[in-house]
Specification:
The structure is a single chain. This protein has 4 helices and 15 strands. It is of the alpha+beta class. The chain has one domain. The relative contact order is 0.16.
């Protein structure tokens, strides 16, 4: 154990020294070059799971977790048996296997440390909801799950407007698959193309004018500036329709009046340190802060090709209409049956 600890300490120290000495290359405009395809795929998530007590764990602990996840994914990715008996009426028909998912295979590593959450403040790695903010989140989540009146009431991911789980951001979160981002730079703009759901966020560098408060864009309005080698982006004016960003047990909620400040710093040839903080007093007790690595990935980014009105949405609404015609509440039945 002592040997492992010393090895980890030496690796972290060597990484810190290398990062401190690194100087990002410049593009034709003299700006730090952030262009390329990057990925935030990881086994680490925004909030810290109950199995972790600290922000960091040892390499040995991380390797054990990564090996366990690899075995689980291998089992879940086995081909589906085409000769399996058909489910009986009322039974769960099951789902497809997991070979198509790509959540990542490793825990996140920042400055040579293995991270158990992206959140660094609060220190417990949990989102600091106010009681009324958490109630707002829960009420919105329940409404999104249980309203079937029409397509407008369904979550944005189902409607192919924005990727689920705050993939487009800001802040940009890792999810089950399609975790690639392509950064493109011009003199007065930076564009972030998001693999999940074909979103593209335009960050203005020269024009600092904010839109009137009644104009609320998807992904908000992002205005950036350079502070040394760091691109700082402040985003406000979020659309009320994107307050809920659902992703299994790791959903995120931001009010339309939230302010998100992001910092992109290239710390090595193959990594950008992506740090961000969220100021949203409507929902949270304090400003919360996080940091995440964006790791270099092989391009190109292929088209996601999500389109509104695909088979899923008509199926969901048709299931609700069938339940209603039979005198049942759609939110009380399994619409996949």
């Amino acid at each position: 154990m002592r040997t492992l600890f010393l090895a980890g300490l030496l690796a972290a120290t060597a990484f810190a020294a290398t990062a401190a000495d690194y100087k990002a290359p410049r593009n034709a405009f003299g700006q730090p070059d952030l262009e390329g395809v990057w990925s935030n795929a990881s086994l680490t998530s925004l909030e810290r799971g109950p199995q972790f007590k600290t922000l960091t764990i040892t390499e040995a602990q991380a390797k054990a977790m990564e090996s366990g996840r690899a075995r689980m994914m291998e089992a879940q990715s086995r081909p589906t048996d085409p000769n399996a008996p058909a489910p009986k009426a009322g039974q769960d028909p099951g789902g497809y296997n997991a070979f198509w998912t790509d959540p990542g295979t490793r825990m996140g590593r920042i400055r040579g440390e293995v991270r158990t959450s992206w959140l660094i403040d609060p220190a417990d790695g949990r989102l600091p909801y106010k009681p009324e903010g958490y109630k707002l989140y829960q009420d919105t989540l329940n409404k999104a799950r249980n309203t079937f009146d029409g397509p407008e009431a369904r979550p944005l991911g189902e409607r192919c407007i924005l990727g689920f789980g705050s993939t487009a951001g800001p802040p940009m979160m890792n999810v089950l698959y399609n975790n690639h981002y392509q950064l493109q730079q011009a003199k007065d703009h930076v564009v972030i193309v998001v693999e999940m759901n074909h979103d593209a966020r335009i960050i203005r560098l020269a024009d600092k004018t904010r839109s009137p408060t009644h104009i609320r864009n998807w992904m908000g309005e992002s205005i950036g500036r350079w502070e040394g080698d760091t691109l700082v982006v402040e985003t406000t004016g979020f659309n009320p329709g994107e307050s809920l960003r659902p992703y299994f047990g790791a959903s995120l909620f931001l009010s339309p009046d939230a302010r998100v400040t992001e910092r992109f710093t290239r710390v090595s040839a193959d990594q950008i340190l992506y740090a961000f903080e969220v100021d949203d007093p409507t929902v949270y007790k304090q400003v919360w802060k996080a940091e995440m690595p964006l790791n270099a990935a092989k391009g190109p980014v292929y088209e996601y090709a999500c389109h509104e009105g695909n088979y899923s949405l008509p199926g969901i609404l048709a299931g609700a209409r069938k339940a209603e015609s039979e005198g049942r509440r759609p939110d009380a039945v399994d619409l996949a049956e």
